[in-house]
């Protein structure tokens, strides 16, 4: 019996809604419906009565819920036991977007070395789209990418948010103070690769302001984009963490342009399989590091 199906059943029962359960589990409503249907076929009972607005447990469903909660709880304890440092061995095929590399990926790798000495690392740095495709194809075990990824049997949960900004070289011919998109329309705009979420958001922003003819320079190498910004090639719409170095060095400055560049939401993504304990453990480690990073930042502001 698939414990993920049981977990889906538990959340659907708690929320009285397949759609709410899908949102809680970062999957689709169709996937939730399929899991519940498969569980009902396996058990040979009807677990829910269904109507347009909500679902309700049947008598058999209420009986099943009590046992399902016990099984899921015990399964969690079991996973924690077998996922101890001594038990985790093998190779983790990890995919990450450039932004994660500039932020906290080195800290994660150092902590992996300390806590899981039996684990080797196969690291791929690529666009979020390509990493997503490789996770679904089984070529990467765990990805830290812009998401979510809504696909069958894929776990995708929010991990961290990066503030983005407009940034330009210090010597760029732009006045101080508040600016608009019209003020920078004659410059090339530097951002992520074509087809990425940030590129699409920038294109939509320009279209909404009647600036569809603006030039956008794309690259899947954000280090190249950062250097082009510092060289005064154009105005960047980039994560703040990527450009901190050239801002501190005085090569570039944040521009007060309205509308602002939307933040980037990154997800931990992996195949939702029972044998994927290593990916789950590293994803949990990443969540802990993100929490520590946020706490440290808040303490610095206090």
Automatic annotation (TrEMBL):
<keyword id="KW-0805">Transcription regulation</keyword>
<dbReference type="InterPro" id="IPR036390">
    <property type="entry name" value="WH_DNA-bd_sf"/>
</dbReference>
<dbReference type="Pfam" id="PF00126">
    <property type="entry name" value="HTH_1"/>
</dbReference>
<keyword id="KW-0804">Transcription</keyword>
<comment type="similarity">
    <text>Belongs to the LysR transcriptional regulatory family.</text>
</comment>
<dbReference type="Pfam" id="PF03466">
    <property type="entry name" value="LysR_substrate"/>
</dbReference>
<feature type="domain" description="HTH lysR-type">
    <location>
        <begin position="1"/>
        <end position="58"/>
    </location>
</feature>
<keyword id="KW-0238">DNA-binding</keyword>
<protein>
    <submittedName>
        <fullName>LysR family transcriptional regulator</fullName>
    </submittedName>
</protein>
<dbReference type="InterPro" id="IPR000847">
    <property type="entry name" value="LysR_HTH_N"/>
</dbReference>
<dbReference type="InterPro" id="IPR005119">
    <property type="entry name" value="LysR_subst-bd"/>
</dbReference>
<dbReference type="InterPro" id="IPR036388">
    <property type="entry name" value="WH-like_DNA-bd_sf"/>
</dbReference>
